[in-house]
Design brief:
Blueprint lengths: L4 E8 L2 E6 L4 E6 L2 H13 L3 E7 L5 E8 L6 H11 L2
Parallel strand pairs: 1-4
Antiparallel strand pairs: 1-2, 2-3, 4-5
């Protein structure tokens, strides 16, 4: 099952950063917030399942955008789980 990749657009020392969650990496740095949002969107759309979180100047979450679809379980797997629970 694919893991969701999350990118954050956050204020940085010299503009706005796009950061990948759980890695501590600054993926890119931009002069304007709009540039950072567009880059974050491109990165998120390149993933199978992703989330772009846009923060305001104070670091508070302002908006979130989901891209892709959460992978669904195979119906055969679900019936196998049910048979184990309800023999």
């Amino acid at each position: 099952m694919a893991e969701r990749v999350t990118y954050h657009v956050v204020p940085g020392e010299h503009g706005w950063n796009v950061e990948q969650e759980n890695t501590g990496k600054v993926v890119s740095n931009h002069r304007t917030r709009i540039e950072a949002i567009l880059r974050g969107r491109d990165l998120a759309q390149g993933q199978e399942y992703s989330l772009l979180v846009v923060h305001d100047r104070d670091g508070q979450v302002e908006r979130q955008y989901n891209y892709g679809r959460f992978p669904q379980r195979n119906p055969q797997d679900k019936s196998a789980e049910q048979s184990e629970v309800n023999p």
